[in-house]
Amino acid sequence: MITITIAILALTCIISFTAFSNEKITEDLIFYPPAIANRNQWYRFITCGFIHADIMHLAFNMYTFYLFGGIVERYFTEIFGGLGRVIYVLLYLSALIVCLLPTYLQHKENYYYRSLGASGAVSAVIFIGIFLNPTMLMGIFPIPFHIPGFIFGPIYLALSAYLAKRGHGNINHSAHIWGAIYGIVFIIVTCQFLTDFRPIEMFINQVSNYIKSF
């Protein structure tokens, strides 16, 4: 059976590769705040997540999504049962929207601003993975060793906030931050209303046991 992660990955690759050779597709799908504000093209919040700037941009996002998406999708099926796959899709699509809301409010009259890529939704998936398994070891350049996720997460957010403040490059660091925050809020709220599973308690217990082991 094809997983939701593989289906999203495949769809993103197909649309992105098609857009690489067709500028009109990119222009029709890209996140362009004035088109949303003035022409009500709200679909751009979602469609921009299925196109990318180049092959390296696509490869990095989809490889990261593949690594964490499979893990998080399995968690969702364990936590939510038969609804797990549906909720996982809702997470991904809603993360594409929510992570760009601050960017939209900031740039809705900026006719020079455009954004594309699935980074915000991928950040949501990554941080749910970290939140549900905070002691898994992760690497971050240029640190030459792996660190547990509950340490990696704050470092990543702090670095993204710093780069966002500087306006570094063409990367939408704000989408990374809000995607990560939204992912954690999403899993907490959905578990609270749909299951007896309490991720906050599990997170605290895992981190506490990890620290006590030293």
Number of strands: 2
The CATH superfamily title: Rhomboid-like
Number of domains: 1
Q: Report the sheet with the most strands, covering strand number, pairing sense and barrel closure.
A: 2 strands, antiparallel
What would your notes on this structure say?
By secondary structure, this protein is mainly alpha-helical. It has one domain: Rhomboid-like fold (Up-down Bundle), CATH 1.20.1540.10. 71% of the residues lie in helices and 2% in strands. It contains eleven helices and two strands; from the N terminus they run H-H-H-H-H-H-H-H-E-E-H-H-H. It has a two-stranded antiparallel ribbon. The longest helix is centred in the first third of the chain and has 26 residues. The N and C termini lie far apart (42 Å).
